[in-house]
Amino acid sequence: MRALDIVMKKRQGEILSAEEIAFLVRGYVDGSIPDYQVSAFLMAVFFQDMTPEETGYLTREMIDSGRTIDLSALSGPFIDKHSTGGVGDKVSLILAPVAAACGLKVPMMSGRSLGHTGGTLDKLESIPGYRTDLTSQRFAEIIGQCGFAMTGQSSDVVPADRKLYALRDVTATVESIPLITSSILSKKFAEGADALVFDVKTGSGAFMKTPEDARRLARALVDTGESLGKKVAAVLTRMEAPLGSKVGNFLEVEESLAMLNCPEALTRVPNDRRSDDLLNVTIRLTAWMLVAGGLAGTVDEAAQQCRAAIDDGSAWARMEENIRAQGGDPAALYERLGTFRAPVAGTIPAAGDGVLTGIDAYAVGMGGVYLGAGRNTATDDVHPDVGFELLRKPGDTVAAGDVIMNVWGHTDEAVRQAVDTVQAGVTIGEAGTTVDGGPDEMILEELSAL
Amino acid sequence: MRALDIVMKKRQGEILSAEEIAFLVRGYVDGSIPDYQVSAFLMAVFFQDMTPEETGYLTREMIDSGRTIDLSALSGPFIDKHSTGGVGDKVSLILAPVAAACGLKVPMMSGRSLGHTGGTLDKLESIPGYRTDLTSQRFAEIIGQCGFAMTGQSSDVVPADRKLYALRDVTATVESIPLITSSILSKKFAEGADALVFDVKTGSGAFMKTPEDARRLARALVDTGESLGKKVAAVLTRMEAPLGSKVGNFLEVEESLAMLNCPEALTRVPNDRRSDDLLNVTIRLTAWMLVAGGLAGTVDEAAQQCRAAIDDGSAWARMEENIRAQGGDPAALYERLGTFRAPVAGTIPAAGDGVLTGIDAYAVGMGGVYLGAGRNTATDDVHPDVGFELLRKPGDTVAAGDVIMNVWGHTDEAVRQAVDTVQAGVTIGEAGTTVDGGPDEMILEELSAL
User: Domain spanning A79-158+165-334+442-449: which CATH class is it, in words?
Assistant: First the structure.
């Protein structure tokens, strides 16, 4: 077997066998196939696509290239959620304890913010003392204890994906559905999940800007998961405006605590806007996890269980237990509620009277990069205490001068740039304008193979 | 400027600027841009194509990457011909002395056989003493003296093409029209030609199997040449059966001498079949060169001059002078005429009565590789004295058992494999069958920008 023939075959749009994909991935990892052949292959895949079966072979090879997390000492069901990334997307921080409170085990390996999108690890690390560099033994112990654990990805999990992703990043082959699919699925299945629920976002603040692209990715995730004999569901959700009412690292932790009915949050930030868009998306995704795990017969039934776990405080109890287990200091965390803000404050006022028709999520994400909430490059540091608070959401009636958003940053310059960037993404229409994408319209489509 | 952005732009089907292409080629040659980015770029070009202007920028950069041949001490016009390669294609050996006899200067840098196609250098080297490794000074002197010279490509001419071609060869990106075009044009213009005439072959024995593909390449060659301000003509010719009546290294020299009316050839191999397909293609291509060089007003007028140069012996006189100038020994060459044959002989007989409808050129080319006329890989040696003689051509009436071809090789095994391979490509139809592609139907189309 020769790598050249495999590249040629894919270039011609032919379907590769499991053996051919295994040959290529193993050869790339062991260094016997040079990167220039692999990058030509990746570009051919970009143009010629892969079937769910081919994508499944690729995923399987990437999983087998490294260590997988052993959760066999625990009883499942092990179900995780993955989001394709958005602005204000703190769903994981709420969903994991809710799912755990309902009886699932959630082995969650998360990433860091990059570009305009936030990262769960950066958010968690704004909790004083919280560690996201768990050993796999400690990861398993905490899952056993709290029902969920949150950690960064270990370097010996899916090394083939790390190597391939690094090559894709410098060869303009990131945006390929089968390559995205295999990268996501390999990481998630290697961490020990039996089933996965995907939040595939679409809109200006998402990786997939159009519903068509998002649907293609969702379809590939579900079909490839099925080809691997795994349960997968995918929910297409809107990402035109930021999700919820806070964007930033600690600001999102704060909002998550309030959503989880944390008593200290309800006392210390009582005037927080409770955003139904965030709640609805989170409940729906968690409900799919319960169905995937066999803990509910229907998604609606499961959604009732999730709401109950929030209302009765059991979800928050799981979160608090997890914070302690992962080294966090709840008392120090509570002290930060409502007070942990970078020193330079700014506001984004309404430019006129009417209906707020849009707050562009991409603009807010890029504004966050100026503030230091996110990163331009993977090695940048982030600030935990910067970001935005949305006092108004699309659909609200506003008068000229009303404060739409508060902004916090470390320098006048950063705040000015962030305000300018975000301001350009704020649109106001005539009184009476109807706005799409309200809290009850966040879910665009659902696909599943359960 | 970043290589990644250029790869991305081409991947998205955008048109690159001269500066972007220069950045990429120079960076690749100087090592600042890694091969994995260039191979991704090449694959993106395979799928997204390039305009003639982009292909022209690429060609210009490849020319400028190395030394160009300086013919300024001579007076032109300097016109060369390039063939995309075929079986039995000894056109260069006849065309160069004819063009020189008509008043052109032909600076010809040729290649070696590879795969099923022959190479001019291998053929020339079957002439005792003939050298194809001329210095560029000697190359220019011989052009001044004989009107043409034939040499291999110097390693300091178009180093970018050498480096890019080596990468294309291992990344399944050889078969891309703009990449083929820039590779051919850069080599030919770097050798000092003012104008070029292309023989773009199509059919089983050609690189471009279909007339559509051949037309695309011809169009790209002409349009790109025009974008570089050069005169280019392209002639699409048939390559379904071998061209002429001999295939092999010395065998093709022998046929070329006969075509040039070399007196010794007429005496020593008087019964050679004189093939009008070969003559017609050669005359037409040479005529286009004369028109490109301003030595004739029309192609038909030019063709008359070419035929006259053959008939009056002036073309042969040029060839003999060139053989001496390049170190060849005419007397030793004449001794070989009709006698220089590898020891094991075989034949390919007609399997039945009827009309010979086809002799598959690709099968003959591959049969030649078994004999050692051609090469499987670039480092194989070739035999000068092996090959095929076609006693019959498609369109001829044959009876069962008639010898269609003679075969010469060095081992029984090689001859057996060659016979089996070629036999499978010989087809005989019912009496009265008409066969396309006769000597007067060799030219399919002509394109020019003169």
Answer: alpha beta
CATH architecture of B344-429: Alpha-Beta Complex (3.90)
Checking if the pLDDT of A155 tops 80, the result is no
Q: pTM here?
A: 0.87
Chain B residues in contact with A167 by the CB 8 A cut-off are 36
Cα atoms in the Cβ-side hemisphere of radius 13 Å centred on B73: 12
Catalytic residue positions of B, numbered: 82, 161, 168, 183, 187
What are B19-78's pLDDT values in tens digits? 999 999 999 999 999 999 999 999 999 999 999 999 999 999 999 999 888 898 999 899
Active-site residue, A168 included = yes
**Interface residue B49 vs chain A (CB under 8 A):** no
Give the gap in angstroms from C-alpha B167 to the nearest C-alpha of chain A.
Answer: 8
CA distance B21 to chain A (A): 16
Q: Which residue of B has its CA nearest to A167?
A: B36
DSSP structure class, residue A199:
E
- Entry field: residues in chain A: 450
Our CA dihedral for A427, A397, A436, A357, rounded to 10 degrees, sits at 0
CB B410, CB B344: distance < 8 Å: yes
Domain ranges of chain A: 3-48, 79-158+165-334+442-449, 344-429
CATH class of A3-48: mainly alpha
B47: nearest CA in chain A? Answer: A47
ipTM above threshold 0.90: no
Other Cβ atoms within 10 Å of B263 Cβ, number: 12
The answer to whether the A79-158+165-334+442-449 and A344-429 domains have the same CATH topology is: no
Order the strands of the A443-449 sheet from edge to edge.
A79-83, A195-202, A231-238, A443-449
Q: How far apart are CA A317 and CA A310, in angstroms?
A: 10
End-to-end CA distance of chain A: 37
First to last CA, chain B: 37
Q: For residue B209, which phi and psi values (nearest 5 degrees)?
A: -75, -30
Query: Is A36 in contact with B167 (Cβ distance < 8 A)?
Result: yes
Q: What share of chain A is helix, strand, coil (3-state, %, to 5)?
A: 45, 15, 35
Contact with chain B for residue A126, Cβ under 8 A? no
Chain A residue with minimum CA distance to B48: A47
Rounded-to-integer distance, Cα A185 and Cα A181, Å: 6
